[in-house]
Amino acid sequence: TSIYQPESFTSVDLGPALGRCRAAVTVEPVLLLAMAALVLQGPLTTQYIYQRSSERLGYAGNSSRGCNSTASPGERRLQQEVETLTAHWNLCINGAGFAVGLFSATLLGPWSDSVGRRPILLVPTLGLALQAAVYLLVVSLSLPVACLLVGRLLSGALGDFSTLLAGCFSYIADVSDKEARTFRVAVLEACLGLAGMFGSVIGGQWRKAQGYTNPFWLALALYLAAGLYAFFFVRESVSVAGSSKLFTTEHYRSVWRLFASRRGENGGRGQLCLYVLCLFIVITVHFGVKDVLILFELSSPLCWQSDLIGYGSAAEHLTYLSSLLGLKLLQQCLEDTWIAELGLMSNIAGLVVISVATTIPIMFTGYGLRILAMATTPVIRAKMSKLAQGTEQGALFAAVACVESLCSLMSTWIFSSLYPATLHFMKGFTFVFGAAMLLVPAGLLGYVRFSYLD
C-alpha cells in the first residue's frame, strides 16, 4: 500500500521525517499559491473579455456613463448582447480547456500511484504558469480574445488545476488515517478559500488602480512559486517501486476497475458511484454559479466595479473558512453526513437570496447565508477516499479530477447558456436553478446514510 516512508523521498533532504499524520504542513502551500493565482486570474479574465466585448459592440456602460435602471431600451439590449458574448467566450475557452484536461487528468492520476505524487504537483503547475503567460501576452499586446484559447489548451493538456487538486488530495489521503481524513481534507479545501480571499481583494483593487497587466504578472509569479515549493519542499508520500510508463491505457483501465470491480462490506461500489454523482452535481452548481456571478454583478441593477466584485468574491471564498470551522464544531455532535446536509441547505438558502438581489446589502446577505456551503465537498471526498485502498488513491482522485473537469465543462455549457437565455424574464433565474439542483444530492446523501448504514 501507499504509505508515508521518508526513505523514499526524492526531493531535497530537509531533516528528520515527520510521522504519519503529524506533518502540520505538507502540500497546503502549493494549493494556496496556485489557488491565489487562479482566483486572481479568473475574475480578471472575465472582466477583460467583458471590456473587449463592450469595445467591439460599442457599449460604454460601466466605463463612462455607469449602468443604471434608466438606460434606454436600446442600451439595455446592447448590454445583454455584451453579456451574451462574454458568456459565450467563457463557454468556448473553458469548455475547450476542460475537455482536454478530462483526458490528461485520467492519465496522470493513476500514474502517480506508481511514480509518486510530486510529478502531478509539478506538471499541472507548469501548465497553469504557461496559461498565465499566454494571458499576459494577450492583455499586454491587445491580441484577439481567441488567443486566450491557446493558454487554456496548454493548461488542459498538462492536467489543469483539477489534476493539481487530485495530487494534493491524494497526498493527504496517503499521510492521514481515516479518523482524521475528513478534517485534513477540509483544511485543504479551506486553503482554497484563504487563497481565494487574497486573490479576490488584491485583484479587484489592483485592476481598478493599474489595469490588467500587473495582476497577471502576479498570477504568473504565484504559479512559479507553487512549482518551486513543490519541487524543493514537498516530500514524496508514496513508496516508489520503480519507473512506470505514462502513455499507456493501463492508467485508464485502473480508473475503470475502481468503479467496476468494487467489493467489500456495505456495498462499496454502490456507495462510491452515488458519492460521485453527489459530487458531480454539487461541483457543477459551484462552477456554474461562479461563471455567471461576475456577469450578474457587473450589469444592472447592481453595476459593481472591480473593487466591489473583489469584495464579493472574497465573501464567497470566506465560506471555505467558515465551513471548516463549522465542520470542526459540528463533528462534536453530528455525523459527517448530516454536516454535509446542512452545507447543502446553507448553499440553497444563499443562492435563493442572491437570485433576487438588487442592492449591495441583499447580495452580501446571500453570501452570508452560504456560511456552511463548502462543508459538503470535503465530507464527500473523505468518504470516497475511505472506500478506496491505499494503492488506489491516485486513481480515485484522478477519477474525481475527471468528474470536476466534466463538471466545469457541463456547468459552463449549462449556466453560461442558461443565463443569457433567461435575462428577459428573471435575471437571477440561474441561481434558483442551481439551488433546485442541490436538492438532488441532499436526497442521495440521505439515501446512502440509511441504505448503507454509512
TrEMBL record:
| Gene3D superfamilies hit by this protein | MFS general substrate transporter like domains (1.20.1250.20)
Task: Establish whether keyword Protease is in the entry.
Answer: no
The principal localisation class reads membrane
Q: Which residues cross the membrane?
A: 87-108, 120-141, 185-204, 216-234, 272-289, 348-373, 394-416, 428-448
Q: Which protein family is named in the record?
A: Belongs to the major facilitator superfamily. SLC46A family.
Which keywords belong to this entry? Cell membrane, Cytoplasm, Disulfide bond, Endosome, Folate-binding, Glycoprotein, Membrane, Symport, Transmembrane, Transmembrane helix, Transport
Output the PANTHER family linked to this UniProt entry.
Answer: PROTON-COUPLED FOLATE TRANSPORTER (PTHR23507:SF2), ZGC:174356 (PTHR23507)
Q: Which GO terms describe its cellular component?
A: apical plasma membrane; basolateral plasma membrane; endosome membrane
Q: What is this protein called?
A: Proton-coupled folate transporter
MF-aspect GO terms: folic acid binding; symporter activity
Q: Which InterPro entries match?
A: MFS, MFS_trans_sf
UniProt xrefs under SUPFAM superfamilies = MFS general substrate transporter
Q: Does the keyword Acetylation apply?
A: no
Instruction: Show the catalytic activity.
Output: folate(in) + H(+)(in) = folate(out) + H(+)(out); methotrexate(in) + H(+)(in) = methotrexate(out) + H(+)(out); pemetrexed(in) + H(+)(in) = pemetrexed(out) + H(+)(out); (6S)-5-methyl-5,6,7,8-tetrahydrofolate(in) + H(+)(in) = (6S)-5-methyl-5,6,7,8-tetrahydrofolate(out) + H(+)(out)
Pfam families (alphabetical): MFS_1
Lipid bilayer topology: Multi-pass membrane protein
Cellular location of this protein?
Apical cell membrane; Basolateral cell membrane; Cytoplasm; Endosome membrane
